[in-house]
Write a structure and sequence with these properties.
Largest interface: A-B, 121 and 122 residues
Helix content of chain B: 40-55%
Number of strands of chain B: 15
Structural class of chain A: mainly alpha
Order of helices and strands of chain A: HHHHHHHHHHHHHHH
Strand content of chain A: under 5%
CATH superfamily of the largest domain in chain B: MetI-like
Largest sheet of chain A: none
Strand content of chain B: 5-15%
Oligomer: heterodimer
Largest sheet of chain B: 9 strands, antiparallel
CATH architecture of the largest domain in chain A: Orthogonal Bundle
CATH class of the largest domain in chain B: Mainly Alpha
Chain lengths: 299, 546
């Protein structure tokens, strides 16, 4: 750093010898820093892949990355309930996503396109209600499901349908606002012209609006999927018997009970389960960013 | 509007074809596409909804659960009105979401507030009626020198176990929920046990003997003799003969007392939800009653509880605040540093940066739990040369580990948000500052940061509220531990309020105290409410709606 550095407003004015050190000062140092951050970000993920392919399958002896390779852990998953849990998780998450997207979009459509008494009031109450997370009310949900289960077992404790219903309770709320903003950005003239052509409100909603707002539907769907996929407290509360568990409940059981001996199972299961989510996320990344920022950044 | 009205008119005539409407041809409205398929779909969906609704109403009636019965009827009527009336157009789109919202969120929030003012929990888990019944059942003993009756194990049409008893030639049958009643047309075998009971399936004795689970069920089954719990029940010890069990406790509904017929002690109902004798002894099963602000008072004054709860509260704020500060800081820094067109492979770098965000959070927490393991964890082995640092066993190290992991999980979110916000910053303002001679720091401090904060402050508040209640990662990484030394609260150094509530509520096992846990939930709600109010004022989001 002995070379004197000037700080010009524009790039590339200073010629000759100091250019290289200037490059280091302005740009070059960003690469080592990136390497450091990437190490922080990626190391645990590399480690989980390494442990998943390590045939020893225990926490001990995993400290040298990729010291040995084998598919034993993945094969061993077949002897556990892993695939049943995976099925439950997908079932619950997919239904939740569909319900959330449809109900949230319908509500956003109503708020965006109709003017009715109580619209302002309901929008503001929705905004307030969604501030209070469902998870904090878990005791009441537990007791509510106990009572409902006494009447209809399919809506009680240990029912996946009940869990879906609980998740759908949070379907309006934040999602409606995300969509509301997006719906408002679709020009009203489009649905007015369709109305003149004789389209009903339902046809306008399904055939005109929904195709135009696909990006925000994707974002809401992804957020709902991640939410229900990763939820632990409600799933743990509702699903009692092992064959009904979701991945979060089941894999927590593996790690909390016998962390060292079931490490191979956990890592292999994590790799399988995380892979689709990772791919989905990276594919929809552009939408997610716009969704995250348009929800509040623009506001 | 006229088109819409005409179309709805058209629908109305089709809803009631029996009422004399001449069908779809009566309308003059033009169709947009095809023949009202949408209406048929709606009709089909409504049929399904009504079928489920009516089924729910019937089973609520059977279970004598009047609250659910009433709510179910009201909701079903509401749904039918909304979807078959021509008014209430917006409601057609709002009702499904609102329904779930009301039952599973709004009601749950209100119910939490109610429970917070009761002593609901272990020993106070039901109504007074249920408590009386449970108490009498606990006090049931075989009546000495009472006759035994030949008996068969039966199942009703729904598969519920019951007993068929031969009482001196008359066969009586009943289940756990249905008291004994005469069974017409039953036949009795040579040994006196009922052999055939119309409407019931006899469970063969061999099956009872060979299936241990069934055996257990049969031995614990009690069939009440009548509706009055004082009359006792029929039970069996071996599955072939039954005897009458009567409670040594006698319930007097007039005086609201339970009398122990053997010792003569009288237990009377107290306003705390217990049956208490004059010398102060209590029967174990009570019922829940309103207790006013007792739970809140306990949370602040109970010696065993107040100190750990205070620590937990402080840590909750510290955890949420530090999470937002650290991850916002790191994310913003990285966003600024790598929002530079001269850096190559920026797309790749960005993708690698946000990978932790794409990995499911609960798995991350479990993964770090293994990595931080003192004995075999890779962090000790690789970065500390095999030292035995007890990351998750020491209070401060565990807190550090939790923050370290949460930073890993959260900074990519801020990196994404800040990158997006940076790119939408007005470049003219920055250029103008540059021309005015503002240095890099000045530009950042006076132009970029204020502009960024305008757009990201609401997200920071939301992030704070989320971390404040981030049950999953705390529970999965440390389980709230390591436990505070020398207290019985069961709470630990990394517990945040929500995990403490979970621990106290006992829904996962152990002694339950729903009342106290709900009271703490209310406190959390109040905190979140204050934070949200702050968010409102900052963003003035409400104005945007109007």
């Amino acid at each position: 750093m002995s070379t004197p550095v000037q700080r010009p407003a524009r790039v590339g004015v200073i010629p000759g010898p100091s250019r290289r050190s200037r490059w280091w000062l302005e740009v070059g140092w960003k690469y080592p820093l990136a390497a450091l951050i990437i190490f922080y970000a990626v190391f645990p993920l590399v480690y989980v892949v390494s442990a998943a392919f390590n045939p020893r399958g225990s926490l001990a002896g995993n400290s040298v990355l990729f010291s040995s390779l084998g598919l034993d852990n993945f094969a061993a998953l077949g002897e556990t309930r892993y695939w049943a849990w995976m099925g439950n998780t997908l079932l619950v998450s997919v239904i939740t996503v569909v319900g959330t997207v449809v109900m949230g979009a319908a509500a956003a459509y109503a708020f965006s396109r109709f003017r009715f008494t109580g619209r302002r009031l309901s929008l503001s109450s929705l905004l307030i209600v969604q501030m209070f997370p469902q998870t904090v009310a878990f005791i009441a949900i537990f007791l509510l499901l106990l009572a409902l289960g006494g009447v209809v077992p399919a809506l009680g404790i240990d029912s996946r349908i009940a869990l879906i219903c609980v998740y759908l309770g949070g379907a309006l709320g934040a999602n409606t606002f995300l969509m509301f903003g997006f719906f408002n950005s679709v020009p009203k003239e489009i649905d007015e012209s369709a109305k003149i052509d004789g389209a009903s409100h339902a046809q306008i909603f399904w055939r005109i609006i929904m195709p135009l707002v696909t990006p925000v539907l994707a974002v809401v769907g992804l957020l709902a999927f991640i939410g229900s996929f990763g939820d632990f407290i409600l799933a743990r509360l509702v699903l009692v018997s092992e064959e009904n568990w979701t991945l979060a409940v089941g894999m927590f059981g593996w790690v909390s009970n016998q962390l060292t001996s079931r490490w191979g199972l956990f890592t292999a299961g994590a790799v399988i389960a995380a892979f689709p989510v990772l791919v989905l996320f990276l594919m929809l990344q552009r939408y997610v960013v716009s969704g995250l920022t348009s929800g509040a950044v623009k506001g | 509007m006229t088109v819409q009205n005409a179309r709805q008119q058209d629908r109305r005539t089709r809803v009631e074809p029996a009422a004399g409407g001449d069908g779809p041809t009566g309308s003059h409205s033009r169709r947009w596409h095809g023949p009202g398929w949408g209406f048929l779909v709606k009709l089909g969906l409504m049929a399904v909804v009504n079928a489920f609704g009516i089924a729910l109403i019937i089973s609520a009636y059977r279970a004598e659960s009047w609250l659910i019965f009433g709510i179910a009827i009201a909701l079903l009527v509401l749904v039918d009105i909304v979807y078959f009336a021509k008014r209430a157009l917006p409601l057609k789109y709002l009702v499904p979401g609102l329904l779930f919202l009301f039952v599973f969120q709004v009601f749950a929030l209100g119910y939490t507030a109610y429970i917070a003012f009761t002593n609901y929990g272990s020993g106070h888990a039901g109504t007074m009626e249920q408590a009386v019944e449970a108490t009498l059942i606990q006090g049931e003993r075989r009546v000495e020198d009472s006759p035994t009756y030949p008996l068969s194990v039966v199942r009703d049409f729904a598969g519920a176990l019951g007993f068929a008893v031969n009482e001196d030639g008359e066969v009586l049958v009943g289940t756990e929920t249905e008291p004994l009643g005469p069974a017409g047309g039953a036949e009795v075998a040579g040994n006196g046990a009922p052999e055939e009971v119309p409407g019931w399936t006899i469970v063969p004795r061999a099956e009872v003997l060979s299936d241990p689970a069934l055996q257990e069920e049969v031995l614990s089954l009690r069939v009440p003799v009548s509706d009055d719990p004082n009359d006792g029940s029929i039970r069996t010890r071996e599955g072939t003969t039954g005897g009458i069990y009567e409670s040594t406790l006698q319930w007097d509904p007039e005086a609201q007392t339970i009398t122990d017929t053997q010792s003569g002690t009288v237990y009377s109902a107290s306003d705390r939800g217990n049956f208490v004798a004059e010398d102060g002894t209590r029967l174990p099963t009570g019922w829940y009653v309103p207790v006013g602000f007792d739970n809140f008072v306990r949370a602040f004054t109970d010696d065993a509880l107040a100190a750990p709860l205070l620590q937990v509260t402080v840590w909750t704020f510290a955890f949420a605040g530090l999470t937002v500060l650290l991850s916002f800081g790191l994310g913003l820094l990285l966003a600024i540093v790598y929002n530079d067109p001269r850096v190559r492979a920026r797309r790749l770098i960005r993708m690698l940066f946000i990978l932790p965000y794409a990995f499911p959070a609960f798995m991350s927490a479990l993964l770090w739990r293994g990595m931080f393991n003192a004995e075999f964890g890779i962090i000790n082995d690789l970065f500390f040369f095999g030292a035995d640092i007890n990351w998750l066993g020491d209070p401060w190290l565990a807190r550090f580990a939790l923050l370290w992991m949460n930073l890993w999980l959260t900074y990519p979110y801020w990196f994404l948000v800040c990158t997006g916000a940076l790119q939408s910053l007005p470049s003219d303002a920055i250029e103008a500052a540059t021309i005015d001679g503002a240095g890099r720091w000045r530009r950042f401090r006076s132009i970029m940061l204020p502009l960024l904060l305008v757009s990201t402050a609401p997200l920071a508040i939301a992030n704070f509220a989320f971390s404040f209640n981030n049950f999953t990662i705390v529970y999965m990484l440390t389980d709230g531990g390591p436990a505070f030394r020398g207290d019985s609260s069961g709470l630990g150094a990394t517990d945040i309020l929500i995990t403490a509530i979970y621990q106290i509520s006992g829904v996962s096992g152990g002694a339950a105290d729903y009342g106290l846990a709900s009271a703490l939930s209310i406190i959390v709600f109040i905190v979140i409410g204050l934070i949200s109010a702050l968010a409102f004022r900052r963003t003035r989001k409400l104005e945007e709606i109007y």
